[in-house]
Amino acid sequence: MKFEDKIVVVTGAGSGIGRACVERFRAEGASVEAWDRDAGAPSEDEGVVRRQVDVSSAEAVGEAAAAAGNRWGGVDVLVNCAGVITPNLPAQDVDPGDYQRNFDVNLMGVVHTTRELHDMLAERSGAIVNVASQAALVCLPHQSAYSAIKGAVAALTRSLAIDWAAEGVRVNAVCPGFTRTPMATGQMTPELEAAVSRRVPLGRIFEPEEIAASIAFLASGDASAITGVVLPVDGGWTAGEPALPM
Amino acid sequence: MSGRFAGKVALVTGAGSGIGAAVAERLADEGAFVVLVGRRGLALEETAVRLGGHAAVLPLDVASSGDVAARIPEALAAHGTPDVVVHAAGQTVLGALHDLSDEDWDRQMDVNLRSIHLLTRATWPAMVEHGGGSVVTVASTASHAAFPQDAAYVASKGAVLALTKAMALDGAADGIRVNAVCPGYIDTPNLRGYFDGQDDPAAAAASAGAAAPLGRMGRPDEIAAAIAFLASDDASFVTGASLLVDGGVLAQVPVG
Question: Is residue A61 part of a domain?
Answer without folding.
Answer: yes
